[in-house]
Amino acid sequence: MLQLYFTPGPSAIYPTVNLHIKEALRKGYLSDSHRSATFKGIYKETEDNLRMLLGIPDNFSILFTSSANEIWERLVQNTVGKKSLHLVNGAFSKRFAEIAAEYGKETIIYNAEEGSVVSPDTIKADNEVELVAITHNETSTGVSQPIEDIISIRKKFPQALIAVDAVSSLPIVELPYDQIDSAYFSVQKCFGLPAGLGVWIVNDRCIKKAEELESKKIITGSYHKLLAMAKKAEDHQTIETPNVLGIYLLGKVVGDMLNKGIGQIRNETLYKAGVLYYGLQTHPLLNPFVKNEKLRSNTVCIFETNDKSIEIINFLKAKSMVIGSGYGSFKNNHIRIANFPATGKEQIEMLTDKLNDFQ
Ligand SMILES: *Cc1c(COP(=O)(O)O)cnc(C)c1O
Ligand 1 pocket check: which of 136, 168, 186 to mutate, most ligand atoms within 8 Å of Cβ? Predict the structure, then answer.
């Protein structure tokens, strides 16, 4: 029997991907040169569709990398001379800060309490900070930083670049692109695609900063340095032979999401998150890990399990449903449920019913 995946990355594949893969093979796209008009057309379609779905303004470029991990490194190399500031609310935001430290940058770190976020009020203004790193949706703890917080941080750091990790919340979150300088995601989370592609959205301020660093003879990388990537992107090309299938599939799935309507997709996500959080409210074992409802993620729903994670995971597995275990040290006392667009309402309802059968 086919398994139903509720895992937060890699995650359930968007239902139309099967057809799009066959089409890509049938049309020979995967053997066409990445310097051909065909590839440029694929890049352009994916870019245009993403701009429309997410409302990305024209002063942002859309660049392709191998993963979000790569984007962390590229951001550090290309936008930080000396000093970056990191809001750490879980394992992913922590890793970004570590990369900056490994590059010898002075990293200012604000740590959130477990299951919460850093409050902007606690952050001290500092006009030497060049990059502020915010994780909108922490996939390891299931917290979401409210958008108002991003706007308050912008006010405190007018000179800095603000980069938002929205790996497990785009396209559900509406980001305030006029208040930030970069956002990024990888495709194996909310977009329901095979892993191996990161999408880096960067504005002209980031590009200007990379130019500034280069003019000071600071090394901004080699093969994927921002200035070279952005220049190629103007002509809908990539430096390397890219993940053509990944870029093609992303464009097609975003096209399907446009046809369905982003409003509808966002409403369904809210509805399904409600089914999970409220449907499990009276469960004798499960409790939402994030106590403050305002900070609870709608796309990665995390429950404490009274150390019964393994039993719950196996109980569901026997019913062909796969959920995520807790992240890192939470392995045995959390379960993580992805509430991404690839998963339908009925599937979330069925999962909630089965979880209620486990007592
Ligand atoms: C998964 C994830 C990443 C890393 O993505 P990769 O594609 O594995 O590099 C980064 N940030 C968040 C919030 C994530 O969920």
Answer: 186
